[in-house]
Amino acid sequence: MRELCNRDDDDISSTRSLAVLEEDAFPLSCPRSIAIAPQVTGGGVPLSELNLKTMHSKVLPGVFLCGEIVDVFGRIGGFNFYWAWVSGRLAGLSAAAPSEEDASPLS
What we know:
Shape: elongated
Number of helices: 4
Radius of gyration: 22 Å
Number of domains: 1
Strand content: under 5%
Structural class: mainly alpha
Helix content: 25-40%
Number of strands: 2
Order of helices and strands: HHEEHH
Largest sheet: 2 strands, antiparallel
């Protein structure tokens, strides 16, 4: 890895980069027990691609999304569970409604 980091040129082949990465060791450490260490997921479908009153996809008609598939971040302490339950309920109720206009339980 040091060999890769100390190079000045930008012409490093991907094969050579992989070889250098495979040869080096990467020690892992965690300041707390893994049982209590914060767990974070990130990424997913941007909120801008959803109707937030129904969780209906603006990109894929007929698709309702919820939980960790959506790009939502929260603090530890139950936020992710809460988001999964609330968004799942909203998406489920909305998907079961006859039309998107009638779907929003928030209206």
